[in-house]
């Protein structure tokens, strides 16, 4: 869009280029810049967050959930829901900095409590209290999720040799147009002539 705008304004085109590698580097920006400043690689935290605690996946009675506490206000809400209001004044957990330093101990305490109820029961309580949390979904859960079905995210098409095949649609919608999946995946060489025939009329491919 910026390139088109430049062409419109000054009449000059520009080459637009990108790559998955550049995207990956961009999305790891704060880890990258922190490493430059400290000359130390970031620690591995699994599902946890290096700058916040408690933050990550916790087991419940039957399924894991994600909890994301990024400030003292949310931590106080979590303490009240877990019936651990004494943690609010506990020097180990009184600030985000202290919670990060005592992450393992805090996570163990929370984990013991969460095992008493199911994931859905905890999510209901957390949502009511305004605590960022979500049930960890499996792929089968995602397929059957009401939002996936309502948004028609999974499309099926008949394949000439493999029966019904499935696709996830492009996750972009416009109010006046759509991007339908018209056909299933092609057979090996199915479009060879369709693609190469015009090229044989040029200098790029020799005529047979």
Detailed description of the structure:
- With 208 residues, the protein is α+β, with helices and mostly antiparallel strands.
- Helices cover 41% and strands 12% of the residues.
- It has ten helices and five strands.
- It has helices spanning 2-10, 20-27, 29-38, 72-81, 96-101, 103-114, 119-129, 139-144, 146-150, 192-200; strands at 55-59, 64-68, 133-135, 154-159, 163-168.
- The strands form two sheets. It has a three-stranded antiparallel β-sheet with strand order 1-2-3, with helices on one face. Strands 4-5 form a two-stranded antiparallel sheet.
- A hairpin with a 3-residue loop joins strand 4 (154-159) and strand 5.
- The chain starts with a helix and ends in an 8-residue tail after the last helix.
Q: Could you name the key traits of this structure?
A:
208 residues; two-stranded antiparallel sheet
Proportion in β-strands = 5-15%
Alpha carbon gap, first and last residue: 42 Å
Order of helices and strands: HHHEEHHHHEHHEEH
| Global Rg | 26 Å
Mean pLDDT: 87
Low-confidence stretches: none
Helical percent range?
Answer: 40-55%
Shape: extended
Q: Count all strands and give the number.
A: 5
* Helix-and-strand structural type: alpha+beta
User: Largest sheet, order of strands side by side?
Assistant: 1-2-3
* SS element count, helices: 10
Topology:
Blueprint: H1 2-10, H2 20-27, H3 29-38, E1 55-59, E2 64-68, H4 72-81, H5 96-101, H6 103-114, H7 119-129, E3 133-135, H8 139-144, H9 146-150, E4 154-159, E5 163-168, H10 192-200
Antiparallel strand pairs: 1-2, 2-3, 4-5
């Amino acid at each position: 869009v910026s390139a088109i705008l430049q062409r419109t304004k000054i009449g000059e085109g520009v080459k637009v280029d990108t790559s998955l590698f550049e995207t990956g580097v961009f999305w790891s920006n704060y880890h990258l810049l922190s490493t430059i400043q400290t000359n130390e690689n970031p620690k591995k935290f699994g599902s946890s967050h290096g700058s916040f605690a408690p933050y990550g996946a916790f087991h419940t009675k039957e399924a894991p959930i994600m909890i994301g506490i990024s400030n003292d206000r949310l931590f106080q809400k979590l303490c009240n829901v877990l019936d651990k209001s004494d943690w609010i004044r506990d020097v180990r957990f009184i600030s985000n900095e202290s919670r990060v330093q005592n992450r393992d101990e805090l996570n163990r305490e929370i984990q013991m409590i969460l095992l008493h109820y199911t994931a859905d029961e905890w999510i209901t309580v957390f949502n009511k209290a305004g605590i960022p949390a979500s049930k960890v979904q499996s792929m089968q859960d995602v397929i059957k999720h009401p939002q996936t079905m309502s948004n028609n995210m999974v499309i099926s098409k008949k394949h000439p040799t493999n029966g019904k095949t499935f696709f996830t649609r492009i996750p972009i919608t416009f109010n006046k147009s759509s991007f339908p999946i018209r056909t299933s995946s092609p057979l090996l060489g199915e479009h060879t002539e369709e693609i190469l025939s015009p090229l044989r009329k040029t200098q790029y491919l020799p005529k047979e």
